[in-house]
Amino acid sequence: MEIMKKAPPILFLLIYLAAVTELHQIVRLPVFFEHYKEHRQHNPSISLLDFIVLHYVSSESKDADYGRDQQLPFKNATCLEVTISVAMPPDDLPETQVQVFSLSRNVMQFKSLIFPCSFHFSIWQPPRA
Q1: Is 6's pLDDT higher than 90?
Q2: DSSP alpha helices (H): ranges in the chain?
Q3: How many C-beta neighbours within 10 Å does residue 28 have?
Q4: Interatomic CA distance for residues 39 and 21, integer angstroms
Q5: How high is the pLDDT of residue 79?
Q6: Which range is most confident: 24-28, 45-49, 62-66, 91-95?
Q7: What 3-state class would DSSP assign to 26?
Q8: How far is CA 81 from CA 10, 21, 78, 84, in A?
Q9: How high is the pLDDT of residue 85?
C-alpha cells in the first residue's frame, strides 16, 4: 500500500524530467548496446571504454556508419529551456489598502412607471419613405 502512495509522484517526476531534460535519451540505450555489438563484430579487441571514446570524446568525422552513430543516446541534443521566475516584493514597501469594491448609490427616478405601448413596438414598424 505504501508503494501505491509513492508511485504517482515518482511517475510525474520522471515524466517532468524526461520532458525538460535530456533524460528521454535513455530510451536510446538499446541502440547504444546494439551499436557496440556491431563494432565488436568488426573489431573484437575494442573495449566499451574505447567505444565510448570513439563516439563521444574524439572529434569524429563522417565515417561509414555516421547515420547509425547519430542514433546513439546523447549524440543529438534537443535545445530545451525552462524558466521559472518568482517575483518577491521588497520588504520596505509601504502597506496599502486596496479597495476591491466601490459602493455607489445611484437613484434613478422615472416620471411614470408605465411606458406607453407604442414605445415597445416602435422598433417593429416598417421603414418609412
Answers
A1: no
A2: 2-20, 29-42, 48-52, 66-69, 117-121
A3: 15
A4: 29
A5: 56
A6: 45-49
A7: helix
A8: 22, 9, 10, 10
A9: 74
Question: Up-side HSE of residue 119: CA atoms within 13 Å toward CB?
Answer: 3
* Mean confidence (pLDDT) of the chain: 77
Q: Which pLDDT value is given to residue 104?
A: 75
Query: Percentages helix, strand, coil for the chain, rounded to the nearest 5?
Result: 50, 0, 50
Long-range CB contacts (< 8 A, 24+ apart) of 82-86?
A: 82/20
**How far is residue 60's CA from residue 57's CA, in Å, rounded to a whole number?**
8
Higher pLDDT, 115 or 7: 7
Provide the 10 A C-beta neighbour count for residue 23.
13
Long-range (24+ apart) CB contacts under 8 A made by 84-91 are: none
Is the confidence at residue 51, as pLDDT, over 80? yes
Helix (H, G, I), strand (E, B) or coil at 24: helix
Q: Which three cell numbers stand for residue 80?
A: 530545451
Write the CA distances from 63 to 54, 66, 67, integer angstroms.
12, 5, 9
What single-letter amino acid sits at 109? Q
How many residues does this entry show for the chain?
A: 129
